Amino acid sequence: MITEGYFLAYDNVIWAVKGCFHPDGYAVAIPRLYKGRKIKKLNEALVLVKQKFQHLLKYLDEIGFEVPLVPLEESVILDPFDPKKERPENVKRFLSYFNGAVGITGSLLYANKYNDMDFLSFNPDHYYTLLELRRRGVTIPLNALNEEEVEVLSKRDFETLKRDRVLEGIFNGTPYTFKIVKCVDFGLVIRKKEFRGIIEIIKAKKSYTLPVIYETTQGLTLTSFRTRFTEIKEGTRLYVDGILLERNKFLDLDLDLAKEVRII
Length: 264
Fold this sequence. Notes:
The protein is of the alpha+beta class. 16% of the residues lie in helices and 38% in strands. It contains 5 helices and 18 strands.
């Protein structure tokens, strides 16, 4: 099963697999490393696809817009759970706190070098391990951000959410990101429309596993596959300028499609 957190090598480009839905024989993915340049912003990756890989774009009812479909037969799958993958000492030390399988993703997976550590898990219980590590002071909150990552959210809101999160932090001097993926069938997109307005989260239905799901007072459901939107607290009010997807199962205000998300 290929999901968010896996990477592919295709056409001399490293691609980051996105989301949970992937048609047979393909993976929905965006460029992460192109001609030696790391691409951190989602919008920048999508612009590159339209410029250089337009032939990969296809509309999917399950997602609601055109996405790049990378053919798996022509790709090398970079598996985060590959037991042969070398693990640096600091990575081993961090993972010693966790029971069960944890994968190595990010630059450690595709480039064998790192400034931070990226992990992938399918076990929701690992979140409680992260909470305990933070409580004990084994990890500390992130105290800096990468300007290249700031998009959709303001710098202030980006920093605020990072500080409150245990899925990101610092272990033994090294920043880490821990993705826990628990896939959900969102159904099909019937239609979509622009949305601008203020919403309030009344239930954090699924706030630390990807995709996150938040219920709002307006009857809309907020979703996202991005770590930046994890662990948002109930009662939070957000201004969202984005796209509302009317699915056959629910009204999906997908934060990954938003032009702007602002904490009120």
